[in-house]
Design goal:
Blueprint lengths: L3 H10 L7 H14 L1 H17 L1 E2 L6 E2 L13 E8 L2 H10 L4 E5 L17 H10 L4 E4 L5 H16 L3 E4 L15 H9 L2 E2 L2
Parallel strand pairs: 3-4, 3-5, 5-6
Antiparallel strand pairs: 1-2, 6-7
Length: 198
């Protein structure tokens, strides 16, 4: 409609979550009409992030360093690991300020229909970490969806057989809700009210 270069920019912006054709068009035209400097900065930032950011080898969070800032922090409680589905969930918990342990990011959840099994979400890596790091508590903070519950149950069973105390976040997070959309106060209450799973 506008020409191949502008059309490609509009189409590229649609890869962002929640951005449809109209929103992508508005963003593209705003950059080109009013903020070319911002557009160049955005382009450079995306290029750098895509090139430099990778998974932390310990927790699978996103980082540009050898270890993410949480794993590299000696003041974090290494005896407690919180399992989350995504980096956005980790960020939401960190924003609540209610947790001082370490994390393990699954980068998804079990979904046999989609061919996503335990190996795809790093369960074996988590079990190795539980054995080598002398973890005392594993907090399961997967989303309260059917897939999140199934993932928590599977990981909880494996961790319990490894002799680790397993808890699950509870009160405050609505059933079917996703952690990245829950406010900090609700998350703090959920962590303070967690219960024994097995």
């Amino acid at each position: 409609m506008f020409g191949p270069v502008i059309d490609e920019l509009i189409d590229a912006l649609r890869c962002l979550p929640g951005v449809g054709p109209k929103s992508a068009q508005r963003m593209a035209l705003h950059i080109l009409e009013r903020n070319r400097t911002g557009g160049l900065r955005l382009s450079a930032a995306i290029g750098s992030a895509v090139e430099l950011v990778r998974r932390c080898p310990r927790c699978r969070n996103l980082t540009e360093d050898d270890l993410c800032v949480i794993c590299a922090n000696p003041r974090r409680d290494s005896k407690c690991i919180c399992v989350v589905e995504t980096p956005a969930d980790l960020f939401a918990i960190e924003q609540s300020g209610s947790y001082r342990g370490l994390y393990f990011v699954l980068m998804g959840h079990l979904s046999p229909i989609d061919g996503i099994g335990p190996e795809a979400i790093g369960v074996d890596q988590l079990m190795q970490r539980l054995a080598s790091d002398q973890v005392e508590e594993l907090i399961l903070a997967t989303n309260l969806t059917v897939e999140g519950e199934a993932t928590a149950h599977y990981i909880g069973e494996r961790a319990r057989h490894a002799g680790v105390n397993v808890t699950r976040i509870a009160h405050g997070v609505p059933l079917g809700g996703e952690l990245e959309y829950v406010d900090g106060g609700t998350l703090a209450h959920a962590f303070n009210s967690r219960k024994q799973l097995f």
